[in-house]
Every structure is written in C-alpha cells, then in structure tokens.
UniProtKB/TrEMBL annotation:
It comes from the Eukaryota. It holds the Pfam family TRAPPC10_1st. This is Trafficking protein particle complex subunit 10. Residues 1-240 form the TRAPPC10/Trs130 N-terminal domain. It comes from Mesitornis unicolor (brown roatelo). GO terms for biological process: early endosome to Golgi transport; intra-Golgi vesicle-mediated transport. One of its GO terms (cellular component) is cytosol.
C-alpha cells in the first residue's frame, strides 16, 4: 500500500536481495529449527484480497501488509499521508489483520528541497506517535536505498532483516492456525456429510506450502497421512461401513 511508484522503483532490488540470506525457522511441538530462504510475492493492496471469516486457504491471501512512503513534508503528511495510512489501518483492523509494517524512505536530495520540515520531529516520529503506539518497531526507515554508499547498504540490510523476521513470524502464525483448523476438520470425519475430497484439498495445500519452502520431508508426511486416511476409508467401505 502507499506510494506505488516508490515501491516499483525498489522492487527489483528487494525481490533479488530478500531470499539471499537464510532465516532460522523455529516451530512448536519440539520440532528442530531449520534454515529456509524466503521468497515473497508482492501484490498491490486491495481489500478484497484480505481473508474472510471461515477462509481456510493459506496461499491465497497476503500475510504481511507494508505501507510505503517517502513523504518528508509535514504539511503533505498532515493533509494526505496521515489520512491514507489511517484508512489502510482501518481496513486491516476490520479484517483482523495485525501484521503490518510502515516503511519511510528518506532521501537526502529530497530533504534539501523542502523548507517546512520540523527540526525536532521527523515524519518517522509522527508516524510512530500516530499509529505505532507500543509497536515502534513497526515503522522503519530506509535511507537512500538506491544510493551506492555504506550507509545505504547498512540501511538496506537492517530493513531486509526486519522484513524477513516479520514475514516469518506472520507466516508461522498463519501456518499454525491453518494446521489447527485442519486437525479440527479431520476430527469431524465420523460426522455425517464430512467430505474426504474437501479435506484432501486442505491438507494438500499444506503439502504445497512445505514444498515451496523446500521442506520435502514435511510435505511427504502430509501425503502419507492422506494415503493412510484414504486407505482406512477403503477398508471401512469393504467391511460394509461408510466411505465418506
């Protein structure tokens, strides 16, 4: 969300550098941590893409929402940007989407052309005060990202680390909820009207997720469980029971 032209100018570098460094992925249930590379698909913010109540999909809606701005003018912030961020956050709250990040891109060249910048209160401070409350880490500064300098590279690296961390946190949380919903659905398999085909699509999507992360052993476990579940229904049907 936010300044689409700004994001478009940074996207080539972002998409190239984001998966370059691996992240340690820690999960619950005593599972051993694994190193994974994160590749993300960025899409323009639209309310219709947000998950709806009862949506059990894992791959069809965005996990982390990012607002981009390079505003350094206090009047522009007051009259336009602040209102735009407010509307964006209100839509997220309406859909219970709590994983977000605001990126403020600062450019020395752009600052020099502005005269109405308050010396003691930067736009970043204003955004943090207006929107972040106790989550000050949800607003980050990206300094001259297209400039070839050590300061720019340090800023990029810090931003990429933050982005990878938030992406992995959000993904892990959504994955855990998806697995819980899947288990609840599986426990209802003895109830009338339960559909193996519907359940198959849910657990197959989980297998797809593990394949995307190159966690092939975890993906194979999902298919083994589906095979065992289907085999049990075949046995039940042969014994005169119900095969749902």
């Amino acid at each position: 969300a936010g300044d689409q032209n700004l994001f478009s100018s940074l996207y080539p570098t972002l998409s190239q550098q984001l998966p370059r460094e691996p992240m340690e992925w820690r999960r619950s249930y005593g599972r051993a941590p694994k190193m994974i590379h994160l590749e993300s698909n960025f899409v323009q913010f639209k309310e219709e893409l947000l998950p709806k109540e009862g949506n059990k999909a894992l791959l069809t809606f965005p996990f982390l929402h990012i607002y981009w701005t390079e505003c350094c003018d206090t009047e522009v912030y007051k009259t336009a940007v602040k209102d735009d961020i407010t509307k964006w956050q209100n839509v997220l709250k309406a859909h219970s989407s709590v994983d977000w990040l605001i990126v403020v891109v600062e450019s020395d060249a752009k600052k020099k052309n502005k005269t109405n910048i308050l010396p003691r209160t930067s736009i970043v401070d204003k955004i943090r005060n207006d929107f972040c409350n106790k989550q000050s880490d949800r607003c980050v500064v990206l300094s001259d990202p297209l400039k070839d300098s050590s300061r720019s590279q340090e800023s990029w690296n810090a931003f990429l680390t933050k982005l990878r961390t938030l992406l992995l946190m959000s993904f892990t949380k959504n994955l855990g909820k998806f697995e819980d919903d899947m288990r609840t659905l599986r426990e209802k398999r003895t109830e009338p009207g339960w559909s193996f085909c519907e359940y198959f699509m849910v657990q197959e999507e989980l297998a797809f997720v593990f394949e995307m992360l190159q966690q092939f052993e975890d993906a194979l476990v999902q298919y083994d469980e589906l095979d065992a579940l289907f085999s049990q229904y075949v046995v039940n049907f042969g014994a005169g029971g119900k095969c749902l």
